[in-house]
Amino acid sequence: MRTSRPARVGQYTALLAYLVFLAFPFLWLVSTAFKPPRELGSLHPTWIPKDPTLANFRQAFDEQPLLHAALNSLVAALAAAVIAVLIATPMAYVVARRRTRLAKAVTGWVVVSQAFPFVLLIIPLFLVLKNLRMINSVPGLVLVYVVWALPFALWMLAGYVRAVPPELEEAAAVDGAGRVRTLVSVTAPLLAPGIVATALFAFITAWNEFFFALVLLKTPEKQTLPVVLTHFIGAEGVADLGPLAAAAFLATLPSLVVFALIQRRITGGMLTGAVKS
C-alpha cells in the first residue's frame, strides 16, 4: 500500500524528532565536557563551547582512578560475554532444533525473564553470592552478568541457528558425524557472525551496567567505571559537572563504537527465522 505524501512527511518528521530526542543527552554531554568552569555556570548556556578546554579531562583523571575502574569493567564485560556465548550456543542449538514442549517452555521462559526488574533479582543473587563467598569480587560480578545476559543471548543465537539449513547437518550425519561434531564443525562456523554480535551485545550490557556493580562491589579498587562516575557527586548532591561530563563521555565511547559495529547484526539476529523459507 502506498502512503500519501503528507503521511510520509509526518512519518519522517516524527522520526527526525525522535532522533533529536535520543541524540540530545549525548550532544549536551560532549558540549559540557569541553566547557570551562565559567561557561558551565553561565545563565545562558550554548551548544558549542566558546573557549573549549581539556582541563575537565585532566581533572577527572586526577580525582578518580578512571583507568583502573575501566580495567575492572573491561575484565568483567569480556569475561561475561565469552562465558555467556559459550553457554548459550549449545543451548540455542537444542532449543532451535528440538521442537519439544521443553524447548518451547525454555523459549517462553526466556521471553518472560526479560521483564524481571533488577530489584527483584538482586536479593536472591546477593544471597547466592554470599554463600559462595563471592561478594565484593569481580568474579562474582561476572557470574551475575552471565546470568543476566544468558536469556537474550539464547534467544538471539536461536534465531541464527534456525537460519542454518538442517540439510547441512543431515549431510554431516550421513558422513558419520555426531551431534557435537556437527555443532562444532558445521553449524558453529556458520553461526560466527551471530556469535560475534551476541558476544558484543553482552559486552555492551556488562560495560554499561551500574546497579549490580553498586550493590555487590564495596572496595574502591574493585569498582567498575559506572560506579566510579558517581564519586564526582559530593555528599550534598552537588556534582562536579565538568569532570563528571568528561569521564562520562570517555566511558560512553566504547559502547558507541561497539554498537555502531554490530547494530545491523543485532537487527538481523532479531529478524532471522521470522520469515519461513
Describe the structure.
The chain has 277 residues and is mostly helical. The longest helix is centred in the N-terminal third of the chain and has 32 residues. The chain is globular and about 75 Å long.
Low-confidence stretches: 269-277
Mean pLDDT: 83
**Which structural class matches the secondary elements?**
mainly alpha
How many helical stretches? 13
Give the topology, please.
Elements: H1 5-33, H2 37-40, H3 55-63, H4 66-97, H5 101-113, H6 118-131, H7 138-163, H8 166-174, H9 179-190, H10 192-208, H11 211-216, H12 225-229, H13 241-271
Helix pairs in contact: 1-13, 3-13, 4-7, 4-10, 5-7, 7-10, 7-13, 8-9, 10-13
Task: Write a concise keyword list for the protein shown above.
277 residues; mainly alpha; 75% helix
Produce a short descriptive summary:
With 277 residues, this protein is mainly α. It has helices spanning 5-33, 37-40, 55-63, 66-97, 101-113, 118-131, 138-163, 166-174, 179-190, 192-208, 211-216, 225-229, 241-271. The chain is built from 13 helices and no strands.
